[in-house]
TrEMBL record, chains A, B:
Residues 62-344 form the Tryptophan synthase beta chain-like PALP domain. CDD domains: Thr-dehyd. One of its GO terms (molecular function) is D-serine ammonia-lyase activity. InterPro entries: TrpB-like_PALP, TrpB-like_PALP_sf. Keywords: Lyase, Pyridoxal phosphate. Belongs to the serine/threonine dehydratase family. It comes from the Eukaryota. Its cofactor is pyridoxal 5'-phosphate. Pfam families: PALP (PF00291). Coiled coil: none annotated. This is Tryptophan synthase beta chain-like PALP domain-containing protein.
Length: 387, 387
């Protein structure tokens, strides 16, 4: 992957340039609305729902929120990760001397058990570059098979990041492959940010044409007031923040709070990035700590206004609503933003205060939809059935 | 409900008239495409996949099928049933003397534990008519709550049709309410058929504008070659058939075969309608035998070209594909048409022979999406975990 020093600057203009590179390879995913969920977001929580929460005894906030869902679960390989992967590889192919010096034959490598594995495999196959994906031996067979089905070579490792990185180092030594990290690189950040650009245009167009929010008064000719996006390694959140720089659109991040998965929120509070996290939150795409490059955008440049966290139960409740009412399949990581909009009184109070009578048009990023029926079933299994 | 003798004739023109009545009340649901599923439908099954089926040892068919999905899972109340319910009630309200003779106060009644219950409840509330829904005592609490949430009065009965009809008779005696049956009535059939009209227009528009089948050559300026729809009571299938009369579009029906749920197919073979069925197929919307009015359209007028049936395993396999690959939540009844297109060699051979090189543009009706996460999880639970 390109030397970060030679990457485009981390600006909105670079996200626009990234979009023109990746657009031919990715789906222009739809932005959807849902009356039931918008109504629910605009209805105050009950006093009893706040019992046992940090907001117990407070008057529930009365925000007016119109939700716009960017459906990256309908993206190629079922997640936004193809944006960064295609951007990294189109930039790599254009790199001076790379082809001439045998870069293509040496290929690319990454370690991932999740969506980045399939995204890089697909992008590499599309661009005719051999890819090696290092996956923990304990990865689910369906994910291994999916990665292989895109033509990648899968090499197994232990589960800790030390073990995974050691195997990556071996692969690089053996093949000379270039590492394409999942989030902590400017090219990846700029690629993921392209979803923010699309969202801005799509919502503006939908509001202008009167589409999408049946029975709701939307401000004529305007667009989003804010976007809330999930934060794991922070590549997509920080890219989205770049895509909104200078537009007046506020960007917020959402994390699970389980077992300290809210490292970015805690890091912001402490003024220092938290570099390691060990959590088994059901939002399995968000178990990683925020990376160094994303941190410079989120913290140093203050392009993310605030971070919020939600409980496992709130994630499950939001997931149920999306599946049963919106009829969309998303993975748990996708709904932390929606859960914040529905259940986090700090966020809801902010919308009430800033949005007032007119309310906010709030963009929600559904980051991916890769979950098996079995995993879904298990997540909602009655407690007494769990071993 | 209107005396059937006074209903509009069962023709395409009457479906068009029904559409103008119901359009203001319903969602114009999208038609979606999916590259993975279209590719799968256009790929011959493996020889080994046919082992143990009626087609064992045969050369697998090589049809070329482009799939177009009419998403009634995104319809109000999550199913096509609102079309018939709104049509029946708009016609009732317009009936001479109904209002003057106190018809509105007397209200409407039906018995249903499924989507028709919620559909009638919503339509009645929208039109300001009191509704009583007779539901079996053993109905799931969420379905009872959903029906009540639309403002209907729920009255409980036993589970057999005799017990349910007895309670309906009591309600009618007590209140003078008008019965709105779930499928066996011309007004219901004409209402359900409106989805067929929309599908025809939508696919024509999508083909004309080059949308929807990425990488696929579609015949320029044309539309659907055929539609395949689920058949339970047959109201929607026969209405869809009416909507296609004279258009040259073939209409097919699909049923589960489990425990004789394929009554319409068997009835056609025997030349006589089968009037009772007792099946516990997972496609729970398709457990009823085909009704007398639908039968006149399907059998007597031959407006449905053929019926096909699929196994429980084929239904589950198709359901998994829609959930995991298309990222859409549908109920099992929705996918019998897709399962036919993917797995039934009689149907696939027909498409190969009639469609040839050019193939068919095939409309698939996703009839509804009302299923809980728990029910989905249970359906795909490993066998050893089931009690």
């Amino acid at each position: 992957m390109a030397d970060p020093a030679k990457c485009p600057p981390l600006t909105r203009a670079s996200v626009v340039a990234a979009h023109s590179l990746v657009k031919p390879y990715i789906h222009y995913t739809p932005v959807l609305t849902n009356t039931t969920l918008t109504t629910l977001a605009s209805t105050p929580q009950s006093v009893s729902a706040l019992e046992g929460t940090p907001w117990a005894g407070q008057e529930p906030a009365k925000p007016k929120i119109r939700l716009w869902f960017k459906c990256e679960n309908l993206q190629k390989v079922g997640a936004f990760k193809v944006r960064g992967a295609f951007h990294a590889l189109t930039r790599l192919v254009a790199e001076e001397g790379w082809e001439e010096q045998g870069g293509r034959e040496r290929g690319v490598v990454t370690h991932s058990s999740g969506n980045h594995a399939q995204a890089l495999a697909l992008a590499a196959r599309t661009m005719g570059i051999p890819a090696t994906i290092v996956m923990p031996r304990i990865s689910t067979p369906s994910k291994i098979a999916a990665t292989q089905s895109y033509g990648a070579r899968v090499v197994f490792s232990g589960s800790t990041s030390t073990e995974r990185e050691a195997v990556v180092a071996d692969v690089i030594k053996e093949t000379g492959a270039r590492l394409v990290p999942p989030y902590d690189h400017p090219d990846i950040i700029l690629g993921q940010g392209t979803l923010g650009l699309e969202m801005q245009t799509q919502v503006e167009e939908m509001i202008a044409s009167g589409q999408g929010q049946a029975g709701e008064k939307t401000k004529k000719g305007k667009g989003l007031d804010a976007i809330i996006a999930p934060c794991g390694g922070g590549g997509m959140l920080s890219g989205t923040a770049l895509s909104c720089e200078g537009t007046g659109i506020s960007v917020f991040g959402a994390e699970p709070e389980f077992q300290g998965a809210d490292d970015c929120k805690r890091g912001l509070a402490a003024g220092k990035r938290i570099e390691s996290v060990s959590t088994l939150t059901i939002a399995d795409g968000l178990r990683t700590p925020v990376g160094a490059y994303p941190w410079t955008i989120i913290h140093d440049r203050k392009l993310v206004r605030a971070m919020y966290s939600v409980t496992e139960e709130q994630i499950k409740a939001a997931l149920r609503l999306v599946l049963e009412r919106m009829k969309m399949v998303v993975e748990p990581s996708s709904v932390v933003g929606l859960a914040t909009a529905l259940y986090n009184e700090d966020f809801r109070r902010l919308v009430e205060q800033e949005g007032g009578e007119q309310g906010w048009d709030l963009g929600i990023v559904f980051s991916g939809g890769n979950i098996s029926i079995e995993a879904l079933g298990k997540m909602f299994e009655p407690a007494e059935k769990k071993a």
